[in-house]
Design goal:
Helices cover 76% and strands 0% of the residues. The chain is an all-alpha fold and 137 residues long. The protein has a single domain, classed as Four Helix Bundle (Hemerythrin (Met), subunit A). Helix 1 runs antiparallel to helix 2, helix 1 packs antiparallel against helix 4 and helix 2 packs antiparallel against helix 3. The longest helix is centred in the middle third of the chain and has 32 residues. The radius of gyration is 16 Å and the shape is elongated. It starts with 14 loop residues before the first helix and ends with a helix. It binds fe (ii) ion. The site of fe (ii) ion has 6 residues, from helix 3 and helix 5.
Length: 137
């Protein structure tokens, strides 16, 4: 079973955004799969996938923010702050992982990203999609 499963409840009703969220879920699953692998490769594999995840997340957030901007979404600034915070926190955790500090493990990092994405998609993304749906109706 995958670490994070795509379910209907995650749909925000926009096929492009749903597809991008699914890609994020797939990357989180790939990151998680590296844990407990060959110790020599585990860290490197995780680092490569997490870097991809961060790159893809930046692309995805830019897409979302563009949509909100075009629609004149009033909560864009707050949403942007949340997006920035995730990228920053993930990069920080990746740095900590890199420096070998025991305080953070790969599992903790995956858990953090998984929880964040789930909550974000289910709450704040849903709010802006509802606004967009109304403004284009
Ligand atoms: Fe978002």
């Amino acid at each position: 079973m995958a670490y994070i499963n795509w379910e209907a409840r995650f749909s925000v009703g926009n096929p492009t955004i749903d597809e991008q969220h699914q890609e994020l879920f797939a990357l989180i699953n790939r990151a998680y799969e590296t844990i407990g692998g060959d110790p020599l490769n585990e860290y490197e594999a995780l680092w490569v996938i997490l870097s991809k995840l961060i790159d893809y997340t930046r692309f995805h957030f830019a897409e979302e923010e563009g949509m909100m901007e075009r629609a004149g979404y009033p909560e864009l600034a707050e949403h942007r702050v949340l997006h920035r915070a995730l990228i920053q926190k993930t990069e920080q955790m990746l740095d900590t992982l890199e420096s070998g500090e025991a305080a953070i493990g790969a599992e903790k990092l995956c858990q953090f990203i998984k929880d964040w994405i789930e909550q974000h998609v289910l709450t704040v993304d849903r709010r802006y999609m509802a606004y967009l749906a109304k403004s284009t109706a």
